[in-house]
Design brief:
There is one protein chain. The chain has 248 residues and is an alpha/beta fold. The chain has a single domain, classed as Zn peptidases (Aminopeptidase). It is built from 8 helices and 8 strands, in the order βααββαβααββαβαβα. α3 packs across α8 and α6 crosses α8. The mean pLDDT is 95. The structure holds zinc ion. It holds the Pfam family AstE_AspA_cat.
């Protein structure tokens, strides 16, 4: 199978890592040509994949996973979503879906929350790192929404399956989160204003920059995953796509 059809772009060449060295994560990587291709590309950095055709006035939305490299369920869920989109004729995708399955392959390789000792989900307001690069990139290409998919350990914050959102300045953040919460049963967490509670979080920075964003969390021990957390992460992603009727 040829992978030439993939319109890919590197957003960083400093973040590369060999995902297959994370044995726990690698066990769940689909044994397909596509996943092999994605892992190969991740060796050199952060890659954004694009599915669907550019049509004016159609929605363009993004899915992120692996901002925290030790939160494994959403990274595998992204690969499953990509397998599904890859199997569809592009005419079945109503708009464009951007997917970054591994925001920081280096962190994923090391099964670590941190990149260079830093939490990438607290760095989005500071230039010179992949989190802020993502915000700038999504601003430039004017995406309609970003879903950032994580997992949370039982004793951490939020410690339950949840969707974070804010009502201002991007009300759509709250509306997307409400939809996912109703659909999947994840707890709805809605703050009034972006940027008040989590300084430098990707979701907050995106919302502050006028790009509606949500953070989805499934319950899983850090550095591990199981079929239940994988299933819930997939349900959250599908519900997010469904909010925008992305798949015909
Ligand atoms: Zn996280």
């Amino acid at each position: 199978m040829s992978m030439d059809k993939f319109d890919i772009k590197y957003l960083s060449n400093k973040t590369g890592g060999d995902i297959s060295l994370n044995r726990i994560l690698n066990q769940y990587v689909p044994k397909t040509e596509l996943s092999k291709f994605i892992l190969e590309k991740a060796l050199k950095g952060t890659v954004i994949y694009k599915f669907g055709d550019d049509v004016y006035s159609k929605n363009r939305i993004a899915i992120l996973s692996g901002v925290h490299g030790n939160e494994l369920a959403p990274q595998i869920a992204s690969l499953h979503i990509m397998e599904k989109l890859n199997s569809l004729d592009s005419s079945k995708i109503d708009g464009i879906i951007y997917i970054i399955p591994f925001v920081s392959p280096y962190s994923s390789m090391r099964n670590s929350r941190y990149f260079d000792g830093r939490d990438l989900n607290r760095m989005a307001s500071i230039s010179g790192n992949i989190s802020n690069d993502l915000v700038q990139y999504f601003k430039n290409i004017k995406v309609d929404a970003v879903g950032d998919f994580h997992s949370t350990a039982p004793n951490a914050n939020p410690g339950v399956e949840a969707v974070f959102s804010t009502k201002k300045p991007s009300k759509l953040s709250y509306e997307i989160a409400s939809h996912i919460s109703e659909n999947v049963g994840s707890k709805l967490i809605a703050y009034e204003n972006a940027g008040n509670v989590f300084n430098g979080a990707l979701e907050d920075e995106l919302n502050l920059n006028g790009i509606p964003a949500v953070t989805c969390e499934v319950l899983s021990q850090n550095g591990h995953l199981n079929n239940k957390s994988l299933k819930q992460s997939l349900l959250q992603m599908n519900s997010y796509l469904d909010y925008f009727n992305m798949i015909l």
